[in-house]
Specification:
This protein is α/β, with parallel strands linked by helices. Helices cover 43% and strands 19% of the residues.
Amino acid sequence: MQLNRRAALALALATPAIASARAQGSWRPDRPMRVIVPFAPGGATDVVARLVSDAASQMLGQNIVIENRAGGAAGLIGAEASAKAAPDGYTIMIHSNAHVIAPSLVARMPYDPIADFAPVAHLGRIPQVLVINRSIPATDMRSLIVWLRANSGKINFASAGIGSANHLTSEVFRAALPDVEMQMVQYRGGGPAMAAVISGEAHMAVDPTASATSHIRAGTVRPIAISGSQRVASLPEIPAATEAGLPAWSGAAWIGAFAPAQTPRGIVESLNVTFNAAMERIKPRLVDIGIEIEPQYASIAAFSTYVREEFARSAAVLRAAGVRPE
């Protein structure tokens, strides 16, 4: 099929600019940008978004305004706004893996998390840490399990919201202790959930190391274990779940940057270059708060594949947990 003359002319005019952007990452904003974070301030996604955006802003010479749009399962409100934003490079969404969890929770999605977004950059993997209110008489996983069994049915487990990465890992924790009844209490983000544990409104929470580290170091909560099989450099004193006595508990969050689906490829590639460079610039800070940099996902192609794989994996985990879209 042949292109009509108008389409052919548009393609001819666009091709040099797009090719240049692909080759050099040459697109640069000429006005302030915004980054939509679909959660409340203070959570891990918000922390990473602010650090990376600040570095990217300095590199681009333009302000990047963080816009927190909390609400809805798995950050639905902010993600919908991002999907419907103008595809011109000036609106970026920074989201957690809750982005690909949402369809497992919401029967009628207002957008498609795969088709309506262009993956821009992988911004790191974040192991999760289980923390408890300091009034609980437990100092490690074994003593906590004893306490949980003795208080089954009376436990408030704070979650960052249905469909959040915290929620998914929390459900894995609950499944690892089927004889303990815990009430999952949903908050509007990781920050409010952590505040509930600190105040005693909730007994415990799973939180990404990126946002939990400052609270742990301040002594406002007591850490019990890191999800999975490995300790993290930022909190080397906290054992991994495998060595702590609950090897069935695993899971991690990840954070990524996305643009609206129709954003020109050259702009997306330029943004990929910028965000990867920003990550490298702030790498010591990210490692310090528990972000694991995964260079194997640095390219757009690798990150796109990773997003699709995580979509399938998350759906399988939630199905196994009995969670159905509503």
